[in-house]
Amino acid sequence: GIAGIMINTVLAVLNLLPIPPLDGSRIVAWLLPAQWNYYYGYIERYGFFILIGLMMTDILGAILSAPIGWVKSVFFALAGL
Fold first, then answer.
1. How many angstroms separate the CA atoms of 12 and 45, rounded?
2. How many CB atoms lie within 10 A of CB 13?
3. Using CA atoms, how far apart are residues 42 and 61, in angstroms rounded to an integer?
4. pLDDT digits (tens, 9 = 90+) for 52-67
Protein backbone atom coordinates (compact mmCIF):
# COMPACT_ATOMS: atom_id res chain seq x y z
CA GLY A 1 0.00 0.00 0.00
CA ILE A 2 1.97 2.94 1.31
CA ALA A 3 5.32 1.71 -0.04
CA GLY A 4 3.81 1.29 -3.50
CA ILE A 5 2.42 4.82 -3.45
CA MET A 6 5.81 6.20 -2.40
CA ILE A 7 7.76 4.27 -5.04
CA ASN A 8 5.40 5.34 -7.81
CA THR A 9 5.39 8.94 -6.60
CA VAL A 10 9.20 9.13 -6.63
CA LEU A 11 9.37 7.55 -10.09
CA ALA A 12 6.70 9.86 -11.50
CA VAL A 13 8.32 13.04 -10.16
CA LEU A 14 11.79 11.87 -11.22
CA ASN A 15 10.56 11.13 -14.74
CA LEU A 16 9.23 14.69 -15.07
CA LEU A 17 12.68 16.25 -14.62
CA PRO A 18 13.76 18.15 -17.73
CA ILE A 19 16.95 16.12 -18.15
CA PRO A 20 17.18 14.16 -21.41
CA PRO A 21 16.25 11.28 -21.87
CA LEU A 22 13.57 11.60 -19.15
CA ASP A 23 10.02 12.48 -20.21
CA GLY A 24 10.22 15.97 -18.73
CA SER A 25 12.79 16.81 -21.36
CA ARG A 26 10.25 15.98 -24.09
CA ILE A 27 7.89 18.56 -22.61
CA VAL A 28 10.64 21.20 -22.50
CA ALA A 29 11.74 20.34 -26.05
CA TRP A 30 8.16 20.83 -27.25
CA LEU A 31 8.08 24.30 -25.67
CA LEU A 32 11.47 25.46 -26.97
CA PRO A 33 12.03 27.22 -30.30
CA ALA A 34 13.49 24.95 -33.00
CA GLN A 35 16.98 26.44 -32.79
CA TRP A 36 17.22 25.95 -29.02
CA ASN A 37 15.65 22.52 -29.30
CA TYR A 38 18.57 21.37 -31.44
CA TYR A 39 21.09 22.32 -28.76
CA TYR A 40 18.91 20.97 -25.97
CA GLY A 41 18.73 17.61 -27.74
CA TYR A 42 22.52 17.57 -27.98
CA ILE A 43 22.89 17.08 -24.21
CA GLU A 44 20.85 13.86 -24.32
CA ARG A 45 24.00 11.75 -24.57
CA TYR A 46 25.13 13.22 -21.23
CA GLY A 47 21.76 13.00 -19.45
CA PHE A 48 22.53 9.78 -17.62
CA PHE A 49 25.80 11.20 -16.30
CA ILE A 50 24.07 14.44 -15.26
CA LEU A 51 21.49 12.38 -13.37
CA ILE A 52 24.17 10.27 -11.65
CA GLY A 53 26.10 13.42 -10.72
CA LEU A 54 22.97 14.98 -9.21
CA MET A 55 22.35 11.81 -7.19
CA MET A 56 25.93 11.62 -5.93
CA THR A 57 25.94 15.25 -4.76
CA ASP A 58 22.45 14.97 -3.19
CA ILE A 59 21.25 17.87 -5.33
CA LEU A 60 18.64 15.53 -6.80
CA GLY A 61 17.19 14.92 -3.35
CA ALA A 62 16.97 18.64 -2.69
CA ILE A 63 15.25 19.22 -6.04
CA LEU A 64 12.77 16.38 -5.64
CA SER A 65 11.91 16.57 -1.94
CA ALA A 66 9.27 19.33 -2.20
CA PRO A 67 7.42 17.97 -5.28
CA ILE A 68 7.46 14.44 -3.86
CA GLY A 69 6.09 15.68 -0.54
CA TRP A 70 3.29 17.58 -2.26
CA VAL A 71 2.30 14.69 -4.56
CA LYS A 72 2.52 12.25 -1.64
CA SER A 73 0.21 14.36 0.49
CA VAL A 74 -2.32 14.63 -2.35
CA PHE A 75 -2.32 10.87 -2.98
CA PHE A 76 -2.50 10.03 0.72
CA ALA A 77 -5.42 12.43 1.16
CA LEU A 78 -7.21 10.83 -1.79
CA ALA A 79 -6.56 7.36 -0.37
CA GLY A 80 -7.67 8.41 3.10
CA LEU A 81 -4.31 7.61 4.72
1. 22
2. 20
3. 25
4. 999 999 999 999 999 9
